[in-house]
Amino acid sequence: MLLKVFKNTVLFSIIIGFSAVTFSCGNNIKQDAGNTKLDTLALNDLSGTLHATNEIDKPIIVGANRTAQYLPVLKGKRVGVVANQTSVVFKAAGQTHIVDSLLRLNVNIKKVFSPEHGFRGTADAGELVKDGKDTKTGLDIYSLHGKHKKPNETQLQDIDIMVFDIQDVGVRFYTYISTLHYVMEACAEQNIPLLILDRPNPNGNYVDGPVLEKKHSSFLGMHPIPLVHGMTIGEYAKMINGEAWLTNGVTCDITVIKMENYNHNRTYSLPLRPSPNLPNDQSIILYPSLGLFEGTNINAGRGTEFQFQRYGAPFLDKNHYTFNYSPVPNFGSKHPKHENEICYGVDLSKINAERRFTLKYIMDAYHNATDKSKVFNTANFTTHAGTDKLQKQIEAGLTESEIKATWKDDLEAYKKKRLKYIMYK
To answer: In what helix (H) or strand (E) does residue 64 lie, and over which residues does it extend?
Structure first.
């Protein structure tokens, strides 16, 4: 039975099926030496599976839906969960949050940890989120984007195992992978195994952008990876371990519950907003390129219903641009750049966006600024770019191809490194 559902302007399909019982000695989830292994019946839980748009015969089954693969290891344990609004198990009638699903399965969840934007995904970008209590379940929620970005020893005292289930979009300055780093580090220090429920990377079909320079590391980029890294959360966790990026070279005991029928060339439509300002496929595809505007004084659609699908500013040439808009406070942006001002720029909401990274939008805005000194917020742009060279290259008038040529060696080295951790061909 095929049920088509529209949510947040994103099309997705729920395919219902029943799986046969097959016996496995943990083959489907066996990880590198030293990782936790689950020896159990390999039941493919198809209570709900998310369907990719280009291969109707083999729907993608996300890690969260493969409950028979991970439920045995959680039974009898005190469990912590790192989750947000994207942490769902897909079912015929829609979806069930992973926390609600585990509680119904009598898993002993002790507490929940939430990343940027909070447990329900409603906080502004960069907004500090306080600890609280989930009104539905009564569970304590500890924010990892407030006073602490890393779970502390006290918070982990009554935890036997942690579960990490968050939808990423494959961009270095999208902070969920920084939260992953700190959760892995905290678990490693307290000898707590980490179970990662993997999900597709909607920008996972390519690798591009400048590689972060160590001196510019921050919560917006902690590791020497390109702006578009081309990995799933599970693959990225393996890289963090393998490259010894955790403090003092500690290693986290991880098990990744792999997806079924996923590969990096499959297109994927997210059924839920991964954060308040990524409302649909168009915004997610354009986000790697338009996300650089976050390090400038140019608005990238925040304060409109077309976040990361347009850009503009009062100081862009109104004689050059025929499009304009005025940002106002809204869901996900309480104080957008240039609030209630007329911004001149470009509407990208209806273009056939390509799944690739380009500098053409930020270069266009810079070249058509009436006062170029107003474009860059230098420190913030460097943090987003991961290098101080990119701003200088744009200001010097280099072409996109000339700029990209300077990334070539670093990208090739990264791609070779990446191959060691790829789980989906």
So the answer is: none
The DSSP element (H or E) to which 171 belongs, if any, is none
Cα–chain-centroid distance for residue 173?
Answer: 9
Residue type, 210: P
Whole-prediction pTM: 0.86
C-beta separation of 225 from 417 below 8 A: no
Surface-to-core class of residue 106, CB atoms within 10 Å of its CB (0-12 exposed, 13-18 middle, 19+ buried):
exposed
Contact predicate 291/300, CB 8 Å = yes
Predicted local confidence at residue 25, as pLDDT: 30
Tally Cβ neighbours within 10 Å of residue 243: 15
| Cβ(162)–Cβ(80) below 8 Å | yes
Which one, of 381, 320, 328, lies nearest residue 345 by Cα? Answer: 320
Q: For the ranges 22-26, 303-307, 328-332, which has the lowest average pLDDT? A: 22-26
List Cβ neighbours of 83 (8 Å cut-off, separation of 6 or more).
97, 98, 99, 112, 113, 114, 119, 163, 165, 166
Could you report the per-residue pLDDT of 229-267, keeping only the tens digit for each? 999 999 999 999 999 999 999 999 999 999 999 999 999
